[in-house]
């Protein structure tokens, strides 16, 4: 049998760019997202914020992988990467086309071992949160001026030195009671629980500090133990958590009544400085002095008011007499002013009459008549002629009220053409 003739296939000739593109596409399709573990080497951070380094195999093999971590992902780092650290990288494989080099584009980085622990941390946090251990309603108000403060930490820890130094500087009179416990390792959770329970049973302190210095998530893991978290939440004494550095977070922080970023900050939260205390006392003293002065002023006014009401009757009568004399003087003065004004008006009218025409003379005369009537109405003698009289007592003082009279009292009645002496036979005041 004769096989059909097939012409040879032409060879495909790639350009460098096309081949690099094809390799990059194949890698992107095969390794779209993956996680790789290894050892950091040659870590550098450029001025742009991008990070570049090599990831070496951690099993002793000679393989290595060039890596790039751009500014956005680098800004999310929770630790400072250094050469020799064991890390896990999450990202994608790619090709750096200008040099045709294989590289790993890193989207997140964490120290080896932290991934599983952090997942466990989140699961336990969610569980305890649902049970209400972290509710704000459970948080208690700390005493403002504690007399004794308890400290749960290791006797060899730097945190204990930081706490004691803060209290010695700010409130040296506060007594510190240490409930020692290891703060790291397999025995730490049981020891921490025992120390917290001992403090709660003895009830000899006003505030309890649970603290230790910073470290990795493995170092701080005892403070994420469920038994320790529940012991803090159930402690009958208000608890301040001061575990790790400012960026470290443990589950004990959520269960405590107050979270401090460091052990020193925890001590400062319950040990107010003597200067602050003196300022508070000065403000309270000033407020008390103001209140005392206000109370004294109020009572002095009340005393003055009562003293006025308790004057002797003769003094009160004399005071009222002075008031009547003042009113009488004002009445006479007003009458004289009215007479003077009327005379001035008459004089002005007479002058006007001289200059007025015959037609206005009648109007002026009429006005003069009216002014004369007003003047006569203001004359006290005219009032007496209408049948009125002034009543005077034996001392010559005017009597204006029936309450000034008494049966048998002698009076002087001033009439328009003389005086008469009368005797009071009865008095009937009007309501």
Task: Tell me about this structure.
Strand 9 (239-243), helix 7 (251-255) and strand 10 (258-259) form a beta-alpha-beta unit. The protein has twelve helices and 13 strands. It folds into four domains: 16-112, Beta Barrel (OB fold (Dihydrolipoamide Acetyltransferase, E2P)), CATH 2.40.50; 135-275, Rossmann fold (3-Layer(aba) Sandwich); 333-378; 381-431, no CATH class. Helix 4 (158-170) runs parallel beside helix 8 (263-270), helix 5 (188-202) packs parallel to helix 6 (226-234) and helix 10 packs antiparallel against helix 11 (358-378). Strands 1-2-3-5-4 form a five-stranded mixed β-barrel. Strands 7-6-8-9-10 form a five-stranded parallel β-sheet. It has helices at 16-30, 71-74, 114-130, 158-170, 188-202, 226-234, 251-255, 263-270, 274-309, 313-355, 358-378, 380-385; strands at residues 34-45, 51-56, 64-69, 86-96, 101-111, 148-153, 175-180, 207-212, 239-243, 258-259, 390-392, 410-415, 418-423. Helix content is 45%, strand content 20%. The chain starts with 15 loop residues before the first helix and ends in an 8-residue tail after the last strand. With 431 residues, the chain is α/β, with parallel strands linked by helices. The chain is elongated.
